[in-house]
User: Fold these one by one.
Assistant:
Number 1:
Amino acid sequence: MKKVVVTGGAGFIGSHLVDRLLKEKRRVVAIDNLSNGALKNLERARSHPLFSFYRADVSNRERIRPLFRGADTVFHLAALADIVPSVQRPADYFRANVDGTLSVMECARHAGVRQVLYAASSSCYGIPDRYPTPEGAGIRPQYPYALTKFLGEQIVLHWGQVYKIKANSLRFFNVYGPRARTNGTYGAVFKVFLPQKIHGMPFTIVGDGRQTRDFTYVADVVEAFSAVANSELKNQVMNVGSGKTVSVNTIIRLLGGGKTVRLPKRPGEPDRTFADISKIKKLTGWKPRVSIENGIRMLLKHLDDFQDLPVWTPDKIEKATQDWFYYLEERG
């Protein structure tokens, strides 16, 4: 009955991972400061005899250090997310995503943890030259969130190499599903579209809607974590995506369609995200199983998760993204 630590365990992906680990009869310690996560995500887990939850900030090393004692594996998902607030508050993102990762790795090192798996972001690729995008593509972060997540990845891999910890990093592409972040900031497609659908408001499309994304269902991400954790791999970086792309216009059709409003294209955003997942498939045998059609069908069964989110109108989006345009657009 090996003990595992999940940082960000009350979050979107973290809470699904916690449920999966408990099914495997692991002793799970979840750490979360609830800045992005929510205790309601852990309703099922909190009644489980093998589960413990601690509200703490991972950058507070002295607070979290005792929680790593006796742990075999650490899944490090705790982070600040979303583009706009990272542009507005870069120091907060550095503290959470860089200092926080250093804190986690130091706690893991001193506790003798055998392996650490890191939740990285495909945003590190920026606007790639190659599609599908392999792990060896150039690193071109366009905003502080992307940069800090990449720096966190480098810390995890370096600590793994120097201190003989089995460390691996998974770069996620456009993860969606139930329990998605509900912190009210402007960001991910489904966090914008689903409240608009619930309230009968027009869908706000950036550009012409023909831009495509590699949407990855959260259950597939959890299975990728499991596959890598149960492998002998170390010091590897692997993409985790669906291996397919779908346009924003198609997403609206799958959500049932409706009126749309066009918004200006945003600087620093790629027209396409598309993961080359051949590496993780070859090394672990993992492959995505949930199609976008089935994923949205399951997501629509959880509309209540998005009931209380703000409804984004064009005026609200323009105001929320002013800093995005100001700081990220190219100026001569």
Note: The chain has two domains: 3-175+216-240, 178-213+244-270+290-327.
Number 2:
Amino acid sequence: MEEFHKVRRLPPYVFEQVNRLKASARARGADIIDLGMGNPDLPTPKAIVDKLCDVVRDPRTHRYSSSRGIPGLRRAQAAYYARRFGVKLDPERQVIATLGSKEGFANMAQAITAPGDVVLCPDPTYPIHSFGFIMSGGVIRSIPAEPDHNFIPVLERAVRHSIPKPLALILNYPSNPTACLATLDFYKDVVAFARKHDIIILSDLAYSEIYFDTAPPPSVLQVPGAMDVAVEFTSMSKTFSMPGWRMGFAVGNERLIAALSRVKSYLDYGAFTPIQVAATAALNSDGSEIEEVRSVYHRRRDVLVDAFGRAGWHVPPPPATMFAWAPIPEPFRHLGSLEFSKLLVEKADVAVAPGVGFGEHGDDYVRIALVENEHRIRQAARNIKRFLTTAAEATTNVVPFAASR
């Protein structure tokens, strides 16, 4: 039977190939150190779990909830933006709760995209940024992920040479997977560009609180006039170690939030009410949970950079996020990221995410997630050192064909 139209538009999921190898190796008894999926291993803070347990005992909370998010949760998100970014939001018209930022992006794409609409999207980037629009009938025009001096000229060329004119621009800083950061001055230039050309900005700020040797990452909504063109998505998954709770937000432009709200009203009844109440308590807390999560990832980052460096693999220290974006060691770069990732599972019992899964311009890299403790990260480095040493020795001991005759 022929595949359905939307399924045909989706390429094979490259991460699944690594996942199959990982599962096969574990079935044979291998101890795979999984640094692939960005699935936080840290427990959700006790106070948040306790609040959930308290509320879930009330049978009134077991009924359908609100697709937009309960009022107290939307007020808590608005208060967070006021404290953290100095941005004033109307909880009724400029804030909506989503089932994680991934769902929010996909549903926003459904809400605003007509067949053939052009969307400017970084490459490499988190897959839903592009495929949410592809599934909605849009067309992706790739732009660089680095927020440098070439960014605006690239956008200007895209506007000149795209038919129809681009509908939207995707931003993601701190970036998944590259971990690069944007400045407020950069956002000012992008907002000016978007207002000039009447282009929507969709900003993914899921890693706003996971930063290390840098100032807190800004929000695009801090720029005067951004509210006219921008919506920003955040998530509680990484900030509060709540990935399975599926709780995120979209905030910003009223018209766009209304469109997202209308689509969501047909698709879901919102997250389970006790989850929303617990999320409200988390957002209204003193922030100590966030500081602890950040410090754990900071320590893991330093251990990974040091241990992998000693093993012979230089990994640039990421300034933010829970990921390192690591160039494939030179002797293996010709393999590409998927084959190199498969090789690491087979020969070093270490799983990473192939960079090509984030876009064709990521194929010289792999993404390493800080989702194992420091002991396991050091163990991964030891495994990799043995693999690199063995590979180097095998290369050195190869006898040239001509000399062997």
Note: The chain has 14 helices and twelve strands.
